[in-house]
Task: structure prediction
Amino acid sequence: SAWQPLGTGMISQVRALTVYNGELIAGGFFTTAGGVTVNRIASWNGATWQALGSGMNNDVRALTVHGTELVAGGWFTTAGGPAAGYIARWDGAGWQTLGSGVDSWVFALGTYNGELIAGGNFLHAGGQAANRVARWDGAAWQPLGSGTSNAVFAVGAYGGELVAAGSFTTAGGEPALFIARWDGAGWRPLGSGMNNDVNALTIHEGGLIAGGGFIAAGGGAAEHVARWDGAAWQPLGTGLEGPIYALTVLDDQLVAGGVFTHAGAQSAVRIARWDGLNWQSLGSGMDNTVLALTVYNGEVVAGGYFNTADGLPVNRIARWDGVAWQSLGSG
Result:
């Protein structure tokens, strides 16, 4: 069989994935992984799940690596025991705060110009006004202009600028429909934007890829996914028939995860790949929503609400070996 069980998976949903110090890091709402108590964040070394200290007291919704540290954001107010305002960093040995943190959910983390960027639905960072997006300069939190009018769900860098996406319709006080770019001094739109939420961003073959709940981008039809080439939005074929929550790239393939079941006429159940010309399924897909994607050891890893992948029990996290899904645990 192409399936190989690896430990026993998560007891509840996986919402964020990244790779840190050669290990896969998963964050979410779970309190056990592989039967081990982990409290909403865990590391997978290829063989076993392990805790990162005593973890968090509530959801982890975003993960990134900044310098030599792993950074987690979410709905938690403690990390490793001490108070942490919705964001914390792991130095390999313990959890540390980033100043006084922020005052509400963190949904997105990334890096721009060497600084950590956090996005969410907070209104203050480090005690000062920072509307839903802020930067950590290593010592203190700083706003990015007047921020955005509603939640930020994804951040990334493209073309020397920071890109923020989410449920907002203005950035820096100017119209920017669900996506905007920050050049270090001010916010600007990316064309005419989208007609609904943008949940995920990545770079594929030189273009910025956005995925979400939208069905139009730049005024044209774009079913839940679109590509920005620096000047205009383009669809990716017929797109996907339901919302996208996660994007990643393996080799030259773009991988999207969400709640969809089709790409055009092709069956693609909650996960699909785009090779630059066509959408294709990855096996028979998942039995429930995919919320997070990353690449670990040359394989795509997916996390979410699902219990099965290709009909096999995987419990909310699985890896694709290029042929079939492999479980990372079962319970």
Summary: The first strand starts at residue 14 and ends at 20. The chain has no helices and 40 strands. The CA atoms of residues 47 and 145 lie 45 Å apart.
